Amino acid sequence: MSELQHGLIYGAFFAYVAAVFLYLCHFRWRLSWLWRSAFAMVLLGFALQTLCLALRWIIAGYLPITNLFNTQLFFSWCLAATYLYVELRYRIHGAGLFVMFCCLLLFASVLTRDPAIPVLIPALDTPLFTLHVTTSFAGYAFFTMAFSMGVLYLVQRWVGSSLLPELKLLRKINEEAVFLGFCLFTLCLIFGGIWAYVAWGYYFSWNIKGVWSSLVWLFYGGMCHAKFVRRWQGTGYAILSIAGFALVLFTYIGIGVLLSSNHPLT
User: What are the residue ranges in the chain where pLDDT is below 70?
Assistant: First the structure.
């Protein structure tokens, strides 16, 4: 990895660290300039990370999301973009602490991995692969946002804080994040099916990654309906968001670590 890429990655990392620290200070002293400064650090980190991803794309000749380092780097970028969308749309302010802490943990895990860009195998050399993976991680990012809002909903319900959004807003953001994540993940499965047919002659195979991805889709599809069922609204929906995120983590990381799969990205 070049010195420029190295500088961009660490610059983004420390910008996110500064954002989390400033959000913590905002919780302590409740000064508006603190959360504004935190948001500015998020913007800075996102800009640096975007430049790094663009540079690696140019160098590789394709979007490098083919190993754990690259997918985690892209996942954290998607999560930061999702947070910026929610902040600009709903002005959640202090709630950004938890979301950006999740992003920071994901980004920190990148720093210990091999940053090399692998050679693209022929089966992955298609725009369908890029569409499949980008929509997958964009969906994961919204599911992570739903998880964050679910946790904050439970905290706000049990503890209560003037620094957190009202329960009604947290519930709205949670439901919207689940819906958008489900739509993006649906596109991911569609692109993946077409890609599999072009590359191997079938739309779906019973490999472990494909099966668990289908379970993720079914779970969040069920959540899109659960929001209309009274007993699952509010607290129940928040708990489902947390359980769904555990399913996402297992599908993304757990299968590659604990199980064997013939999926190209495990």
Answer: 1, 256-266
